[in-house]
Amino acid sequence: xxGFRDIDIIRGVVRAGGFRAAADELGLxxxxxxxxxxxxxxxxxxxxxxxxxxxxxxxxxxxxxxxEAERLLVQRDRIAAQMTGAAGLAGTVxxxxxxxxxxxxxxxxxxxxHADWPQLxxxxxxDISRQLAEALRADHLDVAILMRDSLPLxxxxxxxxxxxxxxxxxxxxxxPGAEVDAARLAALPIVTFSRGTxxxxxxxxxxxxxxxxxxxxxxxASLSMTYHLTTQxxxxxxxxTPLAQVLDPEGAAIHPLDVAPELALPDLEFVVAYMPAxxxxxxxxxxxxxxx
Length: 292
What we know:
Layout: H1 4-16, H2 19-26, H3 30-44, E1 49-52, E2 55-58, H4 60-84, E3 91-97, H5 99-102, H6 106-116, E4 120-126, H7 129-137, E5 143-147, E6 156-159, E7 165-169, E8 179-180, H8 182-186, E9 190-192, H9 198-207, E10 217-219, H10 223-231, E11 236-240, H11 241-247, E12 255-256, E13 258-259, E14 270-274, H12 276-291
Parallel strand pairs: 3-4, 3-5, 8-13, 9-10, 9-11
Antiparallel strand pairs: 1-2, 5-14, 6-14, 7-11, 7-12
Helix pairs in contact: 1-2, 1-4, 2-3, 6-12
């Protein structure tokens, strides 16, 4: 029914005291201003200005319109300042992360983003990488930090430093310093990532293909659960080194196993991912903060 330009023109006429003076201030022809106001009055079904000689004054309807419209202008200016001005980027970011990221990149990354963009708010989801990838593709997340091999089609990816992944056991299950070969490892219960993930496949390839007993492999989507099961001697866990260092800084509850080179697990490769058509700017900011 009306736009911000209509409000600016009416406010300009009031401040200038007439159509001619407002035309000079607004850089418009006087006829254009008169025509715009007549058309607005027609759409509203109200007379906004009473003509008095060469001047004009607001009618009661005009004063009501301008009072209410001023509130819209304040909101407009506030939004513009938050999005492009000194207040910087603002709004809610739907961020999804793999659990490993909670114990490695996430705390420092969010602290950096909050310092640079205090008006940003984060809604965080923790899930396995393939679920994060599907949520990103379906526009349920703006940015996701997930494993590289789960990257959805069409997403841009910024790599993060690799995260070491090792075999861990409680001292009561395997004594520290003891060499562990494939046969001994396969004879013990294994607790690792969810079935279908890259780490699960890496564990399976190193154990199931070998001669000897078929290992019992337990799957968990929760690294915290894997850690706690490992500390209780339930089995050998595959745990990211940073997570073990955070949860057991003294190395008293669990310790990394000394395994043969062919049993060593590849590092976890994480990326910051986003769909460029929807979230390029915030994706780049999150990636920069995560990499730093």
